[in-house]
Write a structure and sequence with these properties.
By secondary structure, this protein is α/β, with parallel strands linked by helices. The protein is built from 15 helices and 9 strands. The strands form 2 sheets. A 7-stranded parallel sheet has the order 1-4-5-6-7-8-9. The chain has a two-stranded antiparallel ribbon with strand order 2-3. This is Uroporphyrinogen decarboxylase.
Length: about 350
C-alpha cells in the first residue's frame, strides 16, 4: 500500500493522497444515502451503510486510503452520554459532565463493547476495499472529547472546560484518564477489525496555551501512541493537533505522521519536524473552489516537500459545497505533479 509505505517513511513513486471528511456531504450519493437512513447517528450505527459511505470516495475519487465513516463522539455516546445532532447547531450532549458523580456514571468498558457497529463497518469495508488501498480508523483525542463532554456542544471560548482545568484539574484529569482507557480498547478493536492506520483528531488543540496543552492533552495522546506502538506495531499512527503551530516542536511522541493544519506554514513544520516524522497536509480547503487555486497550492506544497516524507491532504476537512469535479482535479494533479518531482529527484 503506497499510503502505509509513506506513513512509515518509505520512498514512493508519487505522493499518496486522501482527504479529511472525504466521505461526506459534498458527494451527491452520500446525501442520498443519509436521506435513506434518516439522520447522521443512524447512518453511523448502520454498519452496512457506514461501509458504503466509506467506500464512496474510493469509487468517486480513487484516493489512496479510505477512512471509516463514523464520528469522534460515538465514544462518549456509548460511555453513557445522551447525544443528538441538531440542525444549525451540531452535536449536543443534553447532560454535560460537571462533577465526579456524573463522570462516575460513564463506563469505558461499556463503550468498547457497544461500538460493535464501528468494528463491523470496518470489517465490511476491508472485505470490499482493494488490497492496495489503506483503511484508516480514527478517534478523537482525549482533550477534544472532554471539551465536548463538558461544554455540551461546540464552543467559542471553552469557558466551562477551562474553568475545570484551572479550578478543578483533578476532575479533568480523572475524565481524561477514563476517556484514554476507553480509547485504548476502541483503537485496538478498530485495528483488529481491519484498520491499517489510526488517526487521532485533536480538533480543539489550539484552545490551550502550551503548558496546559502539554499536560492536559498531549500527554494523553503520547500515551495512546505508546499503547498502539506496543500492542499493534505494524499499524501506522497519525496525529492531527489542529492549531498548535506556535509550539509544534514540543509535540514529540511515538507516532509516524503529523497532520499539519492549513494555518501552519508547511516549510516551518518541515524544518522543525520533517526530519523525524512524516508530514500530512496541508492545502487550504477553500482552494478547492477554483482549479487555478488548486494548482498554485499544490505546486507550493510539493515544491516545499520535494517528495520527502509527505502525505498530501487538506489542512482541514473538505467543505460540503466543493464541486466533486474539483476534488477529482486535485487528486489527479497531485499524482501527476508529485510523480514528476520524485522522478526528477532520483
Amino acid at each position: 500500500m503506497i499510503f502505509i509505505d509513506a506513513c512509515k517513511g518509505k520512498a514512493t513513486k508519487r505522493t499518496p493522497i486522501w482527504l479529511m471528511r472525504q466521505a461526506g456531504r459534498y458527494l451527491p450519493q452520500y446525501r442520498e444515502l443519509r436521506a435513506s437512513v434518516g439522520d447522521f447517528l443512524a447512518l453511523c450505527k448502520d454498519s452496512q451503510k457506514a461501509a458504503q459511505a466509506t467506500l464512496q470516495p474510493i469509487s468517486e475519487l480513487n484516493v489512496d486510503a479510505a477512512i471509516i465513516f463514523s464520528d469522534i463522539l460515538v465514544l462518549p455516546l456509548e460511555m453513557g452520554m445522551s447525544l443528538s445532532f441538531k440542525p444549525g447547531i451540531g452535536p449536543v450532549f443534553s447532560e454535560p459532565i460537571n462533577d465526579l458523580k456524573a463522570l462516575d456514571k460513564l463506563s469505558a468498558d461499556k463503550a468498547i463493547e457497544n461500538l460493535n457497529y464501528v468494528y463491523d463497518a470496518l470489517k465490511i469495508t476491508r472485505e470490499q476495499l482493494s488490497p492496495d488501498k489503506a483503511l484508516i480508523g480514527f478517534c478523537g483525542a482525549p482533550w477534544t472529547l472532554a471539551t465536548y463532554m463538558v461544554e455540551g456542544s461546540g464552543s467559542k471560548n471553552y469557558a466551562n472546560v477551562k474553568k475545570m482545568l484551572y479550578s478543578n484539574p483533578q476532575l479533568l484529569h480523572s475524565m481524561l484518564r477514563k476517556i484514554t482507557n476507553a480509547l485504548k480498547g476502541y483503537i485496538s478493536a478498530q485495528i483488529n477489525a481491519g484498520a491499517d492506520a489510526i488517526q487521532i483528531f485533536d480538533s480543539w488543540a489550539g484552545a490551550l496555551e502550551m503548558n496546559a496543552y502539554l499536560e492536559f492533552a498531549w500527554s494523553y495522546i503520547s500515551e495512546l501512541c505508546d499503547y498502539i506502538r506496543k500492542n499493534h506495531p505494524n499499524t501506522a499512527i497519525i496525529v492531527f493537533p489542529k492549531g498548535v503551530g506556535a509550539f509544534i516542536e514540543n509535540l514529540q511522541a511515538g507516532y509516524d505522521v503529523l497532520g499539519i493544519s492549513w494555518d501552519m506554514p508547511l516549510k516551518i513544520a518541515k524544518d522543525k519536524m520533517g526530519a523525524k516524522y512524516v508530514l500530512q497536509g496541508n492545502l487550504e480547503p477553500c482552494r478547492l473552489y477554483d482549479t487555478m487555486a488548486i494548482e498554485d497550492g499544490v505546486d507550493e506544497i510539493l515544491n516545499i516537500m520535494r517528495g520527502k516524507r509527505h502525505i498530501f491532504n487538506l489542512g482541514h476537512g473538505i467543505l460540503p459545497d466543493i464541486p466533486v469535479k474539483n476534488a477529482r482535479y486535485l487528486i489527479d494533479y497531485v499524482r501527476e505533479k508529485s510523480a514528476k518531482i520524485i522522478a526528477k529527484a532520483k
